[in-house]
Write a structure and sequence with these properties.
Blueprint lengths: L1 E4 L3 E8 L2 E10 L4 H12 L5 E12 L1 H16 L4 E4 L3 H10 L12
Parallel strand pairs: 3-4, 4-5
Antiparallel strand pairs: 1-2, 2-3
Length: 111
């Protein structure tokens, strides 16, 4: 497990059986974006591992955070690597719907 956290945003990562799930907690915005990008980069570029972002504890995401998710999607699609999001909170799902990006993400049911 890898943990990265500050006062407003934390990430816990569990990798097993060819899959890495990144649990996001708190607020993903401009102030934490550089650290999150740096932390997630090795997982994004590992095309042999299924990457899952669990958003259950994500309380807020701004346009910078949405941009990061879209850049992950683009990179993973370019490598033909699996990428899913799961447990999207209602307020985040509403934002995804309003911005029209819902159709681009594959939502995985909880396992």
């Amino acid at each position: 497990m890898i943990t990265n956290k500050n006062d407003k945003f934390a990430v816990n990562t569990i990798c097993e059986n060819g899959s890495c799930t990144i649990y996001m907690h708190g607020e993903l915005d401009l102030s934490v974006a550089p650290d999150f990008r740096k932390m997630i980069e090795p997982f994004v570029t590992d095309q042999n591992t299924k990457l899952i972002l669990n958003l259950k504890e994500l309380e807020y995401i701004d346009s910078t955070g949405i941009g990061i998710l879209l850049s992950i999607l683009k990179a993973r699609n370019g490598m033909n690597a699996e990428f899913y999001i799961e447990e999207v909170p209602g307020q985040i799902q509403k934002l995804f719907d309003m911005t029209g990006i819902t159709k681009f993400f594959t939502v995985q049911e909880n396992s």
